[in-house]
């Protein structure tokens, strides 16, 4: 009888399994296949077209000797750290204020969420206009502060922070909405118990509410991290990597070498390093997250 059950289990939900075949094939061919193709050709000297003339790790040696690549890595690290910290902190604080049942809540929520509806190209162009010498700087000078200077887009050491400001302006509203949804799911009895016990509000948030909102924070972290890794269009719209190479980012480096400068091998090497970095962070986190759940369930 046991042997008869296995075929039945294999053919259970057969229609659903057949319907999933195109998606599985897409994942295998497009994602896994293209990833392997990228890794293989990153070890070649391919230029405009892919060619299987292997050169070992020459592309990677050249990559890490490139000042443009090292600047892009430094910039993405600065952008990533500041975006993660400030978007989560500011988004959570805004959600806390919105959760106080304030008047015109829907209006404020729409205002905060509106930037997220814009594309990064539009956001970049808007902030390029705001931060250039004819934007805020001119307005303040016209008010009588003639010595006021705001060189965020022209100073090599400050330009990445201008990009951070634009990114936070666009993305913080989404973080606020996610946090607000998490706060609204907290049982009111928890707040009543905290007030009865005389626990200060800030301690309730830090030691009770935030731990309960862990899934929301994880989801927010994944969304922000995705935006950080693929940062490209905001930089192109605001600075195009300038002044010089001071606002270069990895995604732009990959695009320029693969399509603008016809150096396929170098672009693929850079994209492979990006993929490896993501996997180094993602795999331990996934093992800790899902392995811990299985351990607790067991």
Automatic annotation (TrEMBL):
<protein>
    <submittedName>
        <fullName>Sugar ABC transporter permease</fullName>
    </submittedName>
</protein>
<keyword id="KW-0812">Transmembrane</keyword>
<feature type="transmembrane region" description="Helical">
    <location>
        <begin position="76"/>
        <end position="98"/>
    </location>
</feature>
<dbReference type="InterPro" id="IPR051393">
    <property type="entry name" value="ABC_transporter_permease"/>
</dbReference>
<comment type="similarity">
    <text>Belongs to the binding-protein-dependent transport system permease family.</text>
</comment>
<dbReference type="Pfam" id="PF00528">
    <property type="entry name" value="BPD_transp_1"/>
</dbReference>
<feature type="domain" description="ABC transmembrane type-1">
    <location>
        <begin position="73"/>
        <end position="285"/>
    </location>
</feature>
<feature type="transmembrane region" description="Helical">
    <location>
        <begin position="21"/>
        <end position="43"/>
    </location>
</feature>
<feature type="transmembrane region" description="Helical">
    <location>
        <begin position="158"/>
        <end position="183"/>
    </location>
</feature>
<dbReference type="InterPro" id="IPR000515">
    <property type="entry name" value="MetI-like"/>
</dbReference>
<feature type="transmembrane region" description="Helical">
    <location>
        <begin position="110"/>
        <end position="130"/>
    </location>
</feature>
<keyword id="KW-1003">Cell membrane</keyword>
<dbReference type="InterPro" id="IPR035906">
    <property type="entry name" value="MetI-like_sf"/>
</dbReference>
<keyword id="KW-0813">Transport</keyword>
<keyword id="KW-0472">Membrane</keyword>
<feature type="transmembrane region" description="Helical">
    <location>
        <begin position="204"/>
        <end position="229"/>
    </location>
</feature>
<keyword id="KW-1133">Transmembrane helix</keyword>
<dbReference type="GO" id="GO:0005886">
    <property type="term" value="C:plasma membrane"/>
</dbReference>
<dbReference type="GO" id="GO:0055085">
    <property type="term" value="P:transmembrane transport"/>
</dbReference>
<feature type="transmembrane region" description="Helical">
    <location>
        <begin position="268"/>
        <end position="288"/>
    </location>
</feature>
């Amino acid at each position: 009888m046991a042997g008869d059950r296995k075929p039945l289990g294999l053919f259970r939900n057969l229609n659903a399994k057949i319907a999933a075949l195109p998606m599985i094939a897409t994942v295998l061919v497009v994602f896994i296949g293209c990833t392997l193709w990228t890794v293989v050709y990153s070890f070649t000297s391919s230029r405009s077209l892919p060619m299987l003339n292997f050169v070992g790790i020459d592309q990677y040696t050249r990559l890490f000797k490139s000042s443009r690549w090292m600047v892009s890595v430094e910039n993405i690290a600065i952008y990533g750290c500041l975006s993660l910290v400030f978007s989560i902190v500011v988004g959570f604080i805004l959600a806390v204020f919105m959760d106080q049942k304030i008047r015109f809540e829907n209006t404020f929520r729409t205002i905060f969420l509106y930037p997220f509806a814009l594309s990064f190209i539009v956001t970049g162009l808007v902030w390029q206009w705001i931060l250039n010498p004819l934007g805020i700087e001119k307005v303040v000078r016209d008010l009588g502060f003639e010595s006021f200077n705001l060189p965020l887009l022209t100073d090599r050491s400050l330009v990445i922070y201008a990009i951070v400001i634009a990114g936070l302006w666009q993305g913080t509203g989404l973080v606020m909405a996610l946090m607000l949804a998490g706060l609204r799911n907290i049982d009111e009895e928890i707040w009543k118990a905290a007030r009865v016990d005389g626990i200060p509000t800030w301690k309730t948030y830090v030691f009770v509410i935030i731990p309960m909102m862990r899934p929301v924070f994880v989801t927010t972290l994944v969304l922000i991290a995705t935006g950080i890794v693929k940062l490209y269009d905001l930089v192109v719209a605001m600075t195009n990597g300038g002044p010089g190479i001071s606002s270069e980012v990895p995604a732009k480096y990959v695009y320029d070498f693969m399509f603008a400068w016809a150096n396929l091998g170098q672009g693929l090497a850079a994209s492979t390093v990006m993929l490896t970095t993501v996997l180094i962070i993602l795999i331990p986190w996934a093992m800790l997250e899902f392995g811990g759940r299985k351990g607790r369930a067991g």
